[in-house]
Amino acid sequence: MHPQDDPYILGDEHGFWADTAADRILDRDPEEPIVIKGGISPSGVPHLGNMNEIVRGYFVAEVLRERGCDVKQVFTSDDRDPLRKLPRKLADLDGDIVDLGDVNAGALGQNLGAPYTAIPDPFGCCDSYGDHFSTLIAESAELLGIDVEMVSNTALYEDGDLEDVTAFLLENRDRAREVLSEYQEKVDEDYVPFRPICESCGHVTETDAVTAIDLDAGTVEYECADVEAGDRTIEGCGHEGTATLRDGKLPWRFEWPAQWRALGVDFEPFGKDHAEGSWPSGVDVARNVLGDEPPVPMVYEWFTLDGEPFSSSEGHVVLVQDVLRLLEPEAVRFFFSKDPQRARDFSIERLDQLVDEFDRMEAVYFGEVDTDEDERERAERVYPLLVDEIREERIRIPYTFAAVLGMTDDPALREEIARREGHVPEDAPRWAVDAALERVERAREWARRTDNEFNYDLKRTELPEHDFDADTEAALDDLADYIEAEEPAGEDLQGEIYETAKRHGVDIGSFFAAGYRLFFDEDQGPKLGPFLAKLDREFVLQRLRRNQ
Ligand SMILES: [Zn+2]
Ligand SMILES: [Zn+2]
Asked: Catalytic activity annotated for this protein (predicted)?
């Protein structure tokens, strides 16, 4: 493969990857507007992993805009693809995952083999199943503040935008076969690079359905036969008919290069699956069949979700709509700003680590923490691309502390504690305080979702009813003194709780229970040492001493 077609050379060792991509695009002297594309087929659920197709391109688009270029970002929903099997899970427009059995799935079953845009929306809210999917993707981009033009592949066909290139491929079908046969075994003399939609049953036919081609009339004749879809067969109806070049679709291996031509694509990121398959064949088709220059490519690695691959069918997915209940949009963007070619995990369990990293980049950008040259340069380069507006007065409450505040319902009390603990400066503007406190609701949702140590109701306002013996009371006082003097870290404090109980001859189980009573008015709770270490100290001391 020609070095310029190698999608893997965008290492992040030197500078920001989006700058490297922009350099490669500008090296080709592209016409403006520079077009950046992404796209997927609307099967399953449009989840966070799919957003690579948009957010990766966003960074490149922004870098080009910084350099004064006119840039257009487009996203194709490859919605003329046929539905090949029933999805097990769907997502409603709120981004919540729904079982197939909970929607009007009948229409889906009857429409296997039909294009997504010809299938009724099982939720009944959009024009079609394909449109429902596109709506979710468009909304995901909007929620992340990314301006992207949604392009329906069906519309491209219906409007004739792919008609010329389809005619060209049919006219040069021998050449098309010759090139593609290097990549796909099924390409034989019956292969025609066009799949008409049967006017009788509505199915997208296969690449051997066309029986005659009349380019002067702009039509093909076809016979609707069975279509193999994985391990099953979608039956054809046997209809023999005539279709125009707008009433069908190109096979994907030709459709992708045809989209590049029709939309004038200069750059496209794609997942590893394409890197081995349709990218090399697409380059070959573009150059050696169509005579076009393929776009600058970029492969991204798939990321996992809490250690496992995303799986729409298993419901192991999360959508942007849902992630934004836990994270600020700028933190989501931050995740996608990382090197695309390194595998990584999106861990909801450890979302606090991601937020801490983001907060650190922000603090480095504003010169609030000491660091080395590399980290400073990175922050200066990337941070401005993450936020809508650079505002130095912005405040961040550390995510886990926000989770602690989330254990209290009263907004005024949350703010009071945040101020007392030094997370809100005295003279902070009101908007900054309000914005910072919004994180509390997100961290609270995170606690609820992961059922972690912050998923308890902390009894801040009133000392719970309790009845301890003298030894337990002495041990609690002792523990308070230790915390006041030592300011211990979580694990040290956990150890000291055991030691204190032992010293005073208090049963260890009862001593922990006393702690849970004082803080939660319950018999059990999270691992007490690490938890108390994360709470505001004054409150911990008061409570252990049973003063309030
Ligand atoms: Zn809908
Ligand atoms: Zn048919």
From this structure: tRNA(Lys) + L-lysine + ATP = L-lysyl-tRNA(Lys) + AMP + diphosphate
Q: Which residues surround ligand 2, an ion (CB under 5 A)?
A: 198, 200-201, 224, 237, 239
For residue range 9-31, what is the model confidence (pLDDT) as tens digits?
665 566 899 999 999 999 999 99
Q: How far is the CA of 428 from the centre of ligand 1 (A)?
A: 43
CATH superfamily of 3-154+252-305: HUPs (3.40.50.620)
As a whole number of angstroms, the distance between CA 368 and CA 174 comes to 64
C-alpha to C-alpha distance for 478 and 221, rounded to whole angstroms:
90
92 Cα to the center of ligand 1, angstroms: 7
CA of 150 to the centre of ligand 2 (A): 30
Per-residue pLDDT of 30-87, as tens digits, reads 999 999 999 999 988 999 999 999 999 999 999 999 999 999 999 999 999 999 988 8
Which ligand minimizes its atom distance to the CA of 201? Answer: 2
Identify the H or E element spanning 61. Answer: helix 52-66
In the reported structure, the alpha carbon of residue 105 is separated from the centroid of ligand 2 by a whole-number distance in angstroms of 22
Count CB-CB contacts under 10 A for residue 142.
12
Q: Kindly identify the ligand whose nearest atom is closest to the C-alpha of 243.
A: 2
Does the domain at residues 470-544 carry the CATH identifier 1.10.10.60? no
**Length of the chain, please?**
548
Ligand 2 centroid to 203 CA: how many Å?
A: 6
C-beta of residue 3 within 8 angstroms of C-beta of residue 9:
yes
Ligand sitting nearest the alpha carbon of 203: 2
Q: Tens of pLDDT along 486-516? A: 999 999 999 999 999 999 999 999 999 999 9
Domain map (residue ranges) of the chain: 3-154+252-305, 163-167+182-249, 399-450, 470-544
Cα-to-centroid distance, 131 and ligand 1 (Å): 7
Q: Is the pTM of this model over 0.85?
A: yes
Query: Relative to the alpha carbon of 103, which ligand is closest?
Result: 1
